Amino acid sequence: MMNEEISTVVAIGPSDPLPTWCESAWNLLASRAANGTLPHALLLCGPTGLGKRAVVEMFVRARLCEMPRDGRACGVCRACKLLAVGTHPDRMRVKLEPNPKTGVMRKEIVIDQVRELSARLAMSSQLSGWQVAVIDPAEALNTAAQNALLKTLEEPTDASLIVLVTDEPWRLSATIRSRCQRIDIAVPPTSEALAWLETRGVASAEPLLAAAGGNPGQAWLLAEQGGMQRRQEVARDLLALAKGGGDVRAIGKIWADDEPQQRLEHAARLLEGALRLRAEGERGRFDPGWDDETLAARFLEANRLRVLLNGPLRTDLVLFDWLNGLPVGIP
Question: Do 204 and 289 touch, CB atoms closer than 8 A?
Answer without folding.
Answer: no
